[in-house]
């Protein structure tokens, strides 16, 4: 079952800063996440970011939250692994 994906404004801005090939890879991974949300083990972040989850796309990370009841994924932030957690 596909989940609805909602992008935060920051995530949209982050995505626009990337090259088109990286953008395509990230969008494809988010589509995959929406199709497989119930079947995968979500990797939660630590500390004060523990309400968020991460998804790897090479050296890039997608930071997201999800609501199982309403079947919605919220994409909060997208960026290179060196900078994403700041």
Radius of gyration: 12 Å
SSE arrangement, N to C: EHHEEEE
Taken together, the total number of domains comes to 1
Average per-residue pLDDT, rounded, comes to: 94
Number of E-type strands: 5
CATH superfamily: RelE-like
Class by alpha and beta content: alpha+beta
If you consult CATH, what is the topology?
YaeB-like fold
As a percent range, the share of strand residues is 25-35%
What's the helical proportion of residues? 25-40%
Adjacency order of strands in the biggest sheet: 1-5-4-3-2
For the termini, the CA-CA separation is: 33 Å
Largest beta-sheet characterization = 5 strands, mixed
Global morphology: globular
Topology of helices and strands:
Blueprint: E1 4-7, H1 9-16, H2 20-36, E2 43-44, E3 53-57, E4 60-67, E5 72-80
Parallel strand pairs: 1-5
Antiparallel strand pairs: 2-3, 3-4, 4-5
What is the gist of this entry?
With 86 residues, the chain is an alpha+beta fold.
List keywords for this structure.
86 residues, alpha+beta, YaeB-like fold, 5-stranded mixed sheet, 2 helices
Would you kindly provide a written description of the structure presented here, covering whatever features stand out?
This protein is an alpha+beta fold and 86 residues long. It is built from 2 helices and 5 strands, in the order βααββββ. The chain has a single domain, classed as RelE-like (YaeB-like fold, 2-Layer Sandwich). The protein has a 5-stranded mixed sheet with strand order 1-5-4-3-2. It is globular, with a radius of gyration of 12 Å. The model has no long low-confidence stretch (mean pLDDT 94).
